[in-house]
Amino acid sequence: MRRILIVDDEPMIRKGLIQLVKEYDSAIEAFSANNGLDAIQAMRQFSPDIVLTDIRMPRMDGLELARTIHETKTNLSVVIISGYDDFNYAKQCISYGVKEYLLKPVTDLELYPVLDRLFSAQKQVSVSLSLYEEWLKETEEAVWMLDDDRLKELLEHWAATYAGTGVQVNQLQQIVADGLSILRKRLQTRGFTVTLDDKAVSDLTALEAARYFQHAIREFADQIVRYRGGNQRKLFDEAVHLIDMHLKEEISLEFVAEKIGLSPTYFSYYFKKIAKESFVQYRMRKRIELAKKMLEMPQYKVVDVGQEVGFSNYTYFHKVFKRITGYSPSEYRAAMGVK
């Protein structure tokens, strides 16, 4: 339902504007406030799409109200209605993001075209469910891996995409409620239950809902840190242990990622970030390190070492070993004084 808030300290003007709005569209929910402070309270309760406000009012005037709304960075349209034909007011209104400036007395001829333009411009942004699903998946992994840098990037992307201009308040509230519910359930499937001071998201303004969402996700990560005793490398260490245990086998990145509960794409990214080398580079380096130790023991034949550390082809083992160490396997053994 579309909602309009009318703010004016003169009761007759408020009543007249409500009547005009109802004649424009009887389905619109119109409510009123007699000053800026009362308007802010009403906005918290009703989440209007458009605010029609006078400039000169006690307690908080229309300009201050417009500035306050502008700072919330919501898709809320403000129309100034004033009896003062003062260009300075108009300039200030523009700086506060005011959409229109009308002079009293306002008639349907002036108001209705303005409402047409504003409601047309406020068509809800189409939120791609597939893209949001992908964002939630990446966020879940960043939270679980305690990747602060990646989590910061994801939250900034969320704010720009889902909490930016064009997203209605009720739409944002639904995005927040659904997102938190999904993230909590997914973390629970990993064996971790997060606790959260639940709020009725439907009672929050767009700015409050956006802040609550980001705070809640960071709280999820903080609880995981406390659960792990501050050890942010736990999953990475588990991955390395798994690779080392199966060093002689042809295990894949996908296999390791599945074992620790991450997508292959994210695991590859995070592994390289922590290890400073890729999964393949790490495994190859560890195989060569093991080969060097075996070559230093005379009971192992040179031709058998490669196969023992996971190379099925001796020629390939010879090539990789020389590229990494600067020696062939035989040259390395000789340099170590092993016969």
Task: Describe, in short, the structure shown.
61% of the residues lie in helices and 7% in strands. The protein contains 16 helices and five strands.
Description:
The structure is a single chain. The protein has 339 residues and is an alpha/beta fold. It folds into 3 domains: 3-121, 3-Layer(aba) Sandwich (Rossmann fold), CATH 3.40.50.2300; 129-227; 234-335, Orthogonal Bundle (Arc Repressor Mutant, subunit A). The chain has 16 helices and 5 strands. Strands 2-1-3-4-5 form a 5-stranded parallel sheet, with helices on both faces. β1, α1 and β2 (29-33) form a beta-alpha-beta unit. α6 (129-145) packs antiparallel against α7 (148-162) and α10 crosses α11. The relative contact order is 0.07. The model has no long low-confidence stretch (mean pLDDT 83).
What's the helix count?
16
Query: What name does CATH use for the topology of the largest domain?
Result: Rossmann fold
Query: How many domains in all?
Result: 3
* Span of the ends, CA to CA: 87 Å
Q: Kindly provide the name of the CATH class of the largest domain.
A: Alpha Beta
Task: Tell me the CATH superfamily of the largest domain.
Answer: Response regulator
Low-confidence stretches: none
Biggest sheet statistics: 5 strands, parallel
